[in-house]
Amino acid sequence: MSTEREHFSSRIGFILAAAGSAVGIGNLVGFPVNAAKNGGGAFLLVYALFVFLICLPVMIAEMAVGRKTAKEPVGAYNTLSGGSKWWSLPGLLGVLTPFMIAVFYMVLTVWIFGYLALIVTGNLDYLASGESFSDFITSYYLFAAMAVVAAIVNFILVAGVKDGIEKAAKILMPALFIMLILLVIFVLTLDNAMSGVKFFVIPEISKLTPSVINGALAQAFFSLSLGMGILITYGSYIDNKTNIPNSAKMVALTDTGVAFTAGLMVLPAVFSFNPNINPAELSDSGISLIFVFLPKIFLALQATIGYIGASIVAAIFFLLVFFAAITSLVSIIEVPVSYLVGERKHSRKKALSILLMTAGILTLFATLSFGMVQFFTEFTSYAGGTKSFFDVIYDIFYDTILPLNGFLLCLFVSYRWKKAKLSEELAKGNANYKGSFIEKYINFSLGTFIPVIIFFIFINTL
Ligand code: PHE
């Protein structure tokens, strides 16, 4: 039986698919919320430094490990460590983490889809009223939305890497970006928008607390889809002609560009709709910031293009966020799929049904944990408060395990697989790599200060 591994059809296809994974709810929702919460400009500054100095080398290493082994995390760690028992643990964690992240990501995707459905049916004003959010997250329509989301993800993943993932990303990513730029231009014309821009881009160094730094690193890892075996898995689908450092740079730039643009849309809008806001009030903003403010931004368009016009623009926007979420969700689920197919020898279809079924049940629990069922809403308590089932998954996997996975990968690549082998892999498709500054930086940073910084932040989170 010959089952040749699928490949992306082109370099740009790979970059778009990886960017499709990276650009998602984390950029459009998570980033603006985190920036608002963590002091605006100060957060932006630390975030950008983390992306280029810490995350980029990790991303490059993940892609290299994937291409070298042509395997997902479990297979990759196994192959490169020569079957070491210890090193199979980070491999397993690299498959479990995306599976659990898929659960909470699915919940958010379902919400986005629910918003889209409500806007299309003429309810933009209801969503913009500000009180609708709590009703929305406990409404039974969400179950129908969940079924639709699962069906779409299943459809793309059954079609596979080239015809599913790559094709979807090629159309959806550019459309999203154009739409975002247009919305930013509109928001910047609103009254008082400039105080939001100032808050967002001018760093106040006094705001750089440990929790800001923590938040920035977790957000950067999540946004770039690192520490989740995704880029290992996507790396396993590229050929030796692809220039990995360059591709990774493109992905990081796109991802950060989209996050920045989203910030430039949301924060000025928040300031414009609350002219008397004290930035300190933003420090406890949560995800509802976006779900409440985005509809307000769109409703404000009403004055210029009428209610229907505003609803159409809003619908297009949520459609694109929805697609960005889908390309991310697809990448998250591709990791365990690839594991079940490659290591456990299940067929792709069977692997998908197993995964979607189990993830679906957990997603159901997570959806119920916003007030619908007390057991899941008050699932447990720690860190001075009750935590829902959703919170627990989020805290464990987003805040803690992601950086841990990144930490282990750095050590693995530097001290087990060895830097010389990493260099050799990265020199494929990049004739000038050996001896370059980039090579020196990657080899040095991965083996020294990146794991140290991640480790401190990790301890700090605990
Ligand atoms: N990076 C995606 C986002 O920003 C989410 C994601 C996380 C995708 C982890 C894959 C893996 O929304």
Automatic annotation (TrEMBL):
Highest taxon of the lineage: Bacteria
Membrane topology field: Multi-pass membrane protein
Subcellular location: Membrane
One GO CC term on file: membrane
Keywords linked to the UniProt accession: Membrane, Transmembrane, Transmembrane helix, Transport
Chief site of localization: membrane
Entry's transmembrane regions: 12-31, 43-65, 140-159, 171-190, 211-237, 257-277, 316-342, 354-376, 396-415, 441-462
Keyword Transport: yes
NCBIfam families: Na_transp (NF037979)
Protein name: Sodium-dependent transporter
Source organism (scientific name): Thalassomonas actiniarum
